[in-house]
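Structure record:
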Amino acid sequence: MYIGVISIIVIAVSSYGLFFFLQRDNEKNIRESIFEQELERQTNSTRSVFQHIGSDLRLISSMLQDLAGSVYLQNEKFSGDKVSNLVDKKFRQLNSVTRVDSIMITDKDGIIHIHKALKGLQTFVNIDISSRDYINQTKKSLLPVYSEGFSGIDGIYRIAVTYPIISIDDGHYIGTIVANLPTIQFFKNYGNVEDVNAKFLVAFDTKGDLLAVGANNDLVGKNFFRNETQQFINYNKDLNNLTRYLLAGNTGYAVYDYGRGERLNTQSPIFVGTKPVYFLQVVTPTDRIYLKINSVLFTESAKMLSLLTGATTAIIVLVFLLRKWYTILENEVGRRTRDLNESNYRLMIANESLKRKEDTQNQFINVAAHELRTPIQPILNAIYLLHSSNLSAEKQGKYMDIIKRNTEKLSRLAEDILDVAKIESNALKLTIEQFNLYDLILNMIEEYKKNIEFVYKDLSIGYQSSNTSLIMKGDKTRLTQVMFILLDNASKFTKKGSITVITQVKSDNIQVTVKDTGPGVDPEILPYLFTKFVTRSERGTGLGLFIAKTIVEAHGGIIWVENNILQKGAIFIFTLPISNKENMEDKDKNNKNV
């Protein structure tokens, strides 16, 4: 008995020592693995964020370019209702992309002639701002400028995006268009800039001044390497070296603690073209990384410790109760093993879910990148040919048409990507007004026919409606987008033949049908047609029908597709609720063919 007790004590002590040693080693390996996975995810996330910011900056610049090419500014007209209405429209478009406080138009001497600002903000006219760096840079380079940060009279820290107004006739400088963006609001679109205890963004301009910082927004506008900011980070050497590396145009990462908890920092420049204009860091408290795994490790440790304790107790009792307690111990080990397997299975399912999300994000980025490259090359080729030799007016018109078509493709792609981003973040909002759906569809078809008449010469588009007054409430712009998507989808597969749009009133709904004489929808993708990235076209992202479905359902309608069994072609159908059925005018009971 004495030898048996001593043996049990030795075995127990050895088992506990081995348990704690293996547990620490296991925890270390798991933490290292989790950290590597989080580092990869955050690096990909940082890349996605800076690409998104760069895309939005290019989109803002493109909108300013469109305004600079208007006939009024080209003729150096800075006043009048038409100019004012044009600026108001462009200002609303800019604010649909991101928060833009104001838009200014100056003449060649830097005098403000037009200043449109958000409600509550002060406007300035006939003020000379020629001394500002971004005005001088734009005038000197005749290129878009993305300014350093600056503080306005109202104390709000901003950046400016400018575009030069250059005469199309002789190339002389007319003036500059300036869009002022509040830095905190701008970068808030892409991540947290307020809560230091969660993952947050830090943004810099090229001088190292802070544009947004989740840790302390009182530091916005301060230079990172000046005393006030350095005191906040306790002069942390690792963070200083990492930031210098970033401002030199490099990506990278580091783990550090400047007195407020350990942080993982991944970083990248924000490029517009090949030039870095701003710089971004994504910072995550490492305790957030290990939060979930700590809970799992604690639970598993408790289970293993309980198992070891139970086993030790069972061994001691086994000396006295032999077969009876042996059976109980065996059952207990089996049950706990099953519990451990179930926990591992749940952890595996969670990791697979994260991987699927990463694969979807990567697929989105790859599709968007491919579709961006497709129209860019024809634009570059056409520009090169326009500059390379003297061309006839006919050839110049041909190349300008190539540039126009492909620029429109880029614009539509950018709008699709922004719409999908809004849908995914539940930020898609409708502007509701009452209108006649008949007029909307009629105007949409006429405009679309003009756009494709030189591309699809053998394609006809018609409109049939039993009512010329289809009054409803909804978002005209979004429903026009739905019709464009369906017509563009039909023409892409039909090319030769006909497309027919039919509107009918059924019960309390308006039913819109788009029929084509193309090959129909491939049965393999028919069940998935309204999901993202589903396409069998030689071009396209597979986002259009996903966006159309979201818009229709946001109006309280439904959309579906059928293959025409009797004839060739696809039939897309969607319904919309009627705003006021009593006001429907049945002026024409016969079909209206357009």
User: Anything to note?
Assistant: The domain at 433-583 is CATH 3.30.565.10 (Heat Shock Protein 90). Residues 110 and 132 are 9 Å apart (CA to CA). The mean pLDDT is 84.
